[in-house]
Inverse folding.
């Protein structure tokens, strides 16, 4: 009887963990980014969930996909890489970063 309860508890915990992982994956946002070749490895180390999306572009930058729990999180994280990375898509994230850049420029004039 005890063994059956332990097995049931383990299954219940495993089921909850699986549902949580599926929920997290379902609510992730993805962006395509071109990153300067000189910082690709550092960028990958920072950007958990990044993956190579192909070969280097003609200009030497590398196309990567990055994920985060929300577009706001991606905006904040990618803003730190403004000199080395360009967001290709989604357009909404490009717009958010442009607005952030304008706000920074206005504040520090």
């Amino acid at each position: 009887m005890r063994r059956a309860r332990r097995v049931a508890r383990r299954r219940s915990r495993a089921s909850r963990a699986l549902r949580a992982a599926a929920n997290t994956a379902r609510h992730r946002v993805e962006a395509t980014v071109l990153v300067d070749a000189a910082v690709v490895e550092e960028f990958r180390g920072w950007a958990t969930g990044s993956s190579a999306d192909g070969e280097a572009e003609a200009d030497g930058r590398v196309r990567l996909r990055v994920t985060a729990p929300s577009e706001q999180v991606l905006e904040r994280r990618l803003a730190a890489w403004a000199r080395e990375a360009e967001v290709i898509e989604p357009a909404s994230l490009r717009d958010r970063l442009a607005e952030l850049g304008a706000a920074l420029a206005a504040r520090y004039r």
